[in-house]
């Protein structure tokens, strides 16, 4: 659980310096999501690598040479698969390190706020100008201490964790995305044995599912949302028939009614309230996790249903 200040210390913290506006629990959930994705992708990558290696035992000729060259660049020994595997293996460790730094900074700054609040209360109890003067001096000393704590935390992440993330994750994945290409033989056709040149059509490079992630950023955002739904105990209301509902995540899942005919006033009010809260929750999630096509389309459907059923949108 993230570090939370008690009310008395929170009011003192407002005078000492900014409270780190980072939720280390969210960072932990992202770390778990990356590990889950890595654990799912690793066996598949191993199977592909083993399959290609097996094909190379019987595949001969010019196309076999092209395949060997292609797999040396993209395969699981030293190619793109190996680089992506190393990046995904390193990423959760860096995220966990950042979460630890955030927790440590919060604990240290919160401790200063608690002690300062106690000391100021004692000094003000004396009353008069002397007590107020010493209380002011104590607040200034606490502000200096908190400023040093925040600066050390920022330097720790900026000088150690950020370069590590860039070196171990960002740059390798960027190189993979920039240099990855399809295996092609002469005249732009695939390097397949036994086929005439240029007669094997290439499948267009694109997404089969138009509502799926359109970029790496979309994919990460979608992965984070799925992980959050898994941690909250299921989607609820998303399967089977019947009317959808707002589940434990605060979002409306399942079929949205086409009309309010046959509903009681209480049911209409609950449906309207559920849609408004779901839209607000999804927009807040989009701000935090980033834009993703399927998520944006769901927001539009819920806003359209709210206008259609109740004549307004919150």
Topology:
Layout: H1 7-16, H2 24-58, H3 62-74, H4 80-126, H5 128-179, H6 216-231, E1 245-246, E2 252-253, H7 265-289, H8 293-310
Antiparallel strand pairs: 1-2
Helix pairs in contact: 1-4, 2-4, 2-6, 4-5, 7-8
Biased composition (Basic and acidic residues): 264-274
Biased composition (Gly residues): 231-242
Region (Disordered): 180-199, 204-274
Task: Give structural notes.
With 314 residues, the chain is mostly helical. The chain folds into two domains: 7-188, Ferritin; 216-231 and 245-310, no CATH class. It has eight helices and two strands; from the N terminus they run ααααααββαα. The chain has a two-stranded antiparallel sheet with strand order 1-2. A hairpin with a 5-residue loop joins strand 1 and strand 2 (252-253). Helix 1 packs across helix 4 and helix 4 (80-126) packs antiparallel against helix 5. It is flat and about 95 Å long. The two termini are 32 Å apart.
């Amino acid at each position: 659980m993230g570090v939370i200040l008690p009310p008395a210390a929170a009011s003192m913290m407002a005078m000492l310096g900014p409270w780190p506006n980072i939720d280390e629990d969210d960072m932990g959930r992202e770390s778990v999501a990356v590990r889950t994705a890595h654990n799912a992708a690793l066996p598949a990558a191993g199977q592909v690598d083993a399959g290609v290696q097996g094909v190379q035992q019987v595949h001969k000729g010019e196309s076999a040479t092209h395949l060997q060259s292609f797999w040396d660049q993209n395969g699981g020994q030293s190619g793109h698969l190996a680089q992506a595997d190393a990046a995904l293996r390193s990423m959760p460790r860096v995220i966990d390190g950042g979460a630890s730094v955030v927790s440590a900074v919060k604990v240290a700054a919160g401790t200063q706020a608690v002690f300062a609040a106690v000391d100021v209360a004692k000094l003000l109890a004396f009353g008069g100008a002397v007590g107020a003067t010493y209380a002011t001096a104590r607040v200034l000393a606490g502000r200096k201490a908190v400023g040093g704590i925040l600066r050390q935390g920022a330097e720790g992440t900026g000088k150690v964790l950020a370069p590590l993330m860039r070196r171990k994750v960002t740059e390798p994945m960027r190189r993979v995305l920039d240099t990855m290409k399809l295996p092609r033989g002469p005249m732009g056709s695939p390097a397949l044995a036994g086929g005439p040149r240029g007669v094997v059509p290439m499948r267009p490079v694109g997404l089969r599912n138009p509502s799926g992630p359109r970029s790496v950023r979309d994919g990460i955002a979608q992965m984070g949302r799925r992980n959050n739904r898994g941690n909250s105990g299921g989607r609820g209301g998303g399967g089977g028939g019947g009317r959808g509902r707002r589940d434990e995540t605060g979002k409306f899942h399942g079929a949205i009614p086409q009309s309010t005919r046959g509903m009681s006033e209480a049911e209409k009010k609950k449906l309207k309230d559920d849609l408004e809260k779901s839209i607000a929750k999804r927009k807040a999630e989009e701000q935090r996790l980033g834009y993703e096509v399927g998520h944006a389309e769901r927001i539009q459907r819920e806003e359209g249903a709210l206008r259609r059923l109740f004549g307004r949108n919150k």
